[in-house]
Amino acid sequence: MAPGIPHQLMADAALVEELAGVAKDAALLHGVQMRTQESPNSSELVTYAPFTLFPSPVPRGAFQQALAVQVHYNTLVDRISQDADFLQAALASTVGVDAFTARLFKIHQQVLEEGTAQPVVLGLNRSDYMLDQKSSGPPAVKQVEINTFAASFGGLASRMPDVHRHILKVAGRLEDSGRILDNGSAGGLAKAIATAWELYGSERAVVMFLVEDRQRNIFDQRCLENQLWSRNIPTKRRTFGDVSKTGFLNPDKKLFVGGQEVAVVYFRNGYMPQNYQSEEAWEARLLMERSLAVKCPDIRTHLAGTKKVQQVLAQPGVLEKFFPEQAGVAEQIRATFAGLYTLDLGPEGDRSVDLALAAPDNFVLKPQREGGGNNLYGADLLRVLQEVKGSEERLAYILMEKITPAPVHNILLRRDAPLTVSACLCELGVFGAYVRKGADVVMNECVGHLLRTKSSEHADGGVAAGVAVLDDPLLF
After folding, report:
1. Residues 212, 276: contact at Cβ < 8 Å?
2. Is the pTM of this model over 0.85?
3. Which of 182-186, 212-216, 399-403 has the lowest mean pLDDT?
4. Catalytic residue among 371, 378, 461, 466
5. What distance in Å separates the CA atoms of residue 87 and residue 107, rounded to the nearest whole number?
6. Where do the annotations place substrate binding (predicted)?
7. Could you give the residue range(s) of every CATH 3.30.1490.50 domain in the chain?
8. Active-site residue 283, yes or no?
């Protein structure tokens, strides 16, 4: 049971009912909210974002390890994005079988041939971890993935501490309330965007949030927008359709959308194939990539976050290529890697296939997709891998060792869901932000964290996918 959250408190049905009502009101009061599914485009129909009634236990050492390595992950992603030869080699097999990755890579090649217009690079990423508990020793921090595109929930995560502090006070757990950490993720992410906007050098230019037509998770984004407006930095929300209809480049490659100059394009849409509903959407992406606007992420950084790159980085000697005089940094990063295996055609890939077919419950089959709900486990892994094992289609996937965290107990608050104590699994995300101008690193920081928790019955899926809920770490 969670340190500081006794079992008898969770078992007291009347108290839990009272605390749940307080918690839901507190979530809305503090802005931990989403648009309802019934009307995702109306701000008048709002519900609380799903979250845990209590904060979940996280070992202090593991938490600090994940935060400490984040600036090195920022550097790694940035250096990968600058290495065109590495990206070419790492993704060569994938682009032959995965049409979406191939289309992204085509844009990358066109920008390379034309020459990068903007020397300022802005990276906002989130490295996600689970605590592997395969032995009786302390849990090991193992990376699930790194998100370089639309790393979400920095806004809502920054609001969660006040909610959990209030719940614990009402529950009579004043000491535990004082152990809830502040979380500056929204401010830190906005600081990096503001720095890039300032380096662009035009007070009239806007930060453009590139968003979906239908957006439930708008309040997470509004947190960042409000932070920028507080700095007198104008923001606009635009879609691929808006860019397609009204976007253009002037002779200096400045990007204009709806008649306004764009200093920064912050992509919150465009990481899944279904985000590109027409050829015009792809042309809009290329237009933005060719422009003088700072892109977050630019196409190179988008590709640096693919699953195939994650797998290649785990091969011997690869990390050292990016940290040639910092062996300790490479070791610090490698310590967070779970087992990653290639499925390329050849003896090594064949061995990976045999390993997974012999013990499918020990592995995860990952396609080159973001957004949650894409990974394959157990019987699904076995079925798909048997279908593709003898063909090039297997190149669209990587194989990863399954991370097995120890379950914790909590109560998940979702609309119309019963208040029951569930065995849960936690995933820790760490937000990183960096800005580089040419060869000069202007900013490189770990700016906050995110804890997501889901019932142990679910293998995959995040908050946006409707599986996980927001949480806070209670360090012990």
Report:
1. no
2. yes
3. 212-216
4. 371
5. 13
6. 126, 221
7. 339-402
8. no
